[in-house]
Amino acid sequence: MQIETEFAIIGGGVAGLTAAIGLNQLGCEFLVFEQAKELKGIGAGFGLAANAMQALDLLGLKKGVEKIGFYTCSYNILDQCGNVLLAPDTKKLSRQYNQDNFTIHRADLHFYLLNQLPNENVILGKKAIHFEENAETITVSFEDGSTIKCKYLLIADGVKSPLRQQLLPHSTPRYSGYTCWRATIDKSSIQLDQGSETWGKQGRFGMTPLVGNRIYWYACVNSEANNPIFRNYTVEDLTRHFKDYHSPIPTILAKTKNEDLIWNDIIDIKPLTHLAYGNILLLGDAGHATTPNLGQGACQALEDVAVLMDELKITDSVPEAFRNFEKRRLKRTKYITDTSKRIGEISQWDNPLMVSFRNTIMKLLPARIAQSGLAQLLSVDFMKIGK
Ligand SMILES: Cc1cc2nc3c(=O)[nH]c(=O)nc-3n(C[C@H](O)[C@H](O)[C@H](O)COP(=O)(O)OP(=O)(O)OC[C@H]3O[C@@H](n4cnc5c(N)ncnc54)[C@H](O)[C@@H]3O)c2cc1C
């Protein structure tokens, strides 16, 4: 059987596009297959912590990305009235990497990554539905009836990956218990210099400034999965829901347009026991989707690619590089998924007594202990883990 490309990458998100850039730099033959007909980078903003900036630096992409984002020097956790519960010392935490935290609009990052690749290597409108492996080749089938034969398969098609599901039927995403709205708005009439996340009885509300005079916000509310009431929620409903929250939350909501609201249930996958399967590798959310409570999903996708390229540089055997990648990535990504899940559970408490107890403890706890989860994550050089 004739091989049509050495590497087939399924999914043109952060993981897939960055992996493609890395393979391009190494001179490997590759094709990216993305289900969307147009790469719009759906979503709002996201934070790239110091570890992600380090990964971008290693991939030679940091300088370009810096031009389209915003460095944030502080980020506070607040109560419903706007009092500080925790002010993580992100500067101290970032010292390990000599990098700062950064925020960027997802669409801007996707366009930047896409522009680093030859057009003909990214094939849109290709939804992968199945793969078959024999001794020499892997054949991926797409929804439109076409197929591609490759030697190595990088599965980077996100948390709901049908190819991972085929490989590991028990890896169905799990629902976190809370649902989320996101949007980006123009901030000309709102003064916002730093990011924050507010933990209150009615849910969580996060906001952060972006370049181009914009604000990215998100709100998480406890709910059953796929709640039909929340499916139809409008800006007016959300403004009512968060009416008792501190300024400028009601104003930010009131300034949001209904057509800009993005709604989805928050899901992750139970940490897997393997990421490498011979000539097949799971990358990014497809391999280790986490809830967004540590803001690390995309950061981990970028770490994945930096580590994978490091391995591919030192061995001619791709399956060996995949195995070594797994050794370096499994424990760290499991730690993030587990820690993020725990933080999500605590931050979504809605019982008034529990909320009051949590907030008191958070105010009393020395910052060193309160931010130990983050410290454990950022105080380690991810490139040295498992080497
Ligand atoms: C509310 C929220 C806030 C977040 N905030 C942050 C943050 O602040 N910082 C951070 O680092 N991370 C954050 N994340 C996580 C981050 O969005 C993800 O971890 C990241 O997007 C993962 O990238 P990926 O490329 O692995 O997957 P995705 O971004 O999901 O990309 C997968 C791609 O594959 C395509 N695809 C899917 N199925 C197929 C198929 N069958 N065939 C072909 N293509 C397919 C999709 O269209 C998509 O383009 C957040 C997530 C959420 C939900």
Question: Which features would summarize this protein structure in a list?
Answer:
alpha/beta, 36% helix, FAD/NAD(P)-binding domain, 387 residues, globular, 8-stranded mixed β-sheet, binds flavin-adenine dinucleotide
Classification by helices and strands: alpha/beta
Q: How many H/I helices?
A: 15
Helix fraction? 25-40%
Low-confidence stretches at least 5 residues in length (pLDDT < 50)?
A: none
| N-end to C-end Cα span | 37 Å
Q: Give the oligomeric state.
A: single chain
Compounds present?
A: flavin-adenine dinucleotide
What gross morphology would you assign?
globular
Write structural notes for this entry.
Strands 1, 2, 8, 9, 10, 11, 17 and 18 form an eight-stranded mixed sheet that branches. A seven-stranded mixed sheet has the order 6-5-13-14-15-12-16. The protein is globular and about 65 Å long. The chain starts with a strand and ends in a 9-residue tail after the last helix. The chain has 387 residues and is an alpha/beta fold. It has helices at residues 14-25, 50-58, 62-66, 90-94, 106-115, 162-167, 228-231, 235-241, 249-254, 285-288, 297-314, 318-347, 352-364, 367-370, 372-378, and strands at residues 5-10, 30-33, 45-48, 69-72, 75-79, 84-86, 101-105, 122-123, 128-133, 138-142, 147-155, 174-186, 195-200, 203-210, 214-222, 262-268, 276-277, 280-282. It folds into two domains: 5-173 and 268-381, FAD/NAD(P)-binding domain (3-Layer(bba) Sandwich), CATH 3.50.50.60; 177-267, D-Amino Acid Oxidase, Chain A, domain 2. Helix 1 (14-25) packs parallel to helix 11 (297-314) and helix 2 packs parallel to helix 11 (297-314). It contains 15 helices and 18 strands. Strand 17 and strand 18 (280-282) form a beta hairpin. Flavin-adenine dinucleotide (FAD) binds at residues 10-16, 33-36, 46-47, 126-128, 156-158, 162, 180, 182, 218, 284-286, 292, 295-299, 301.
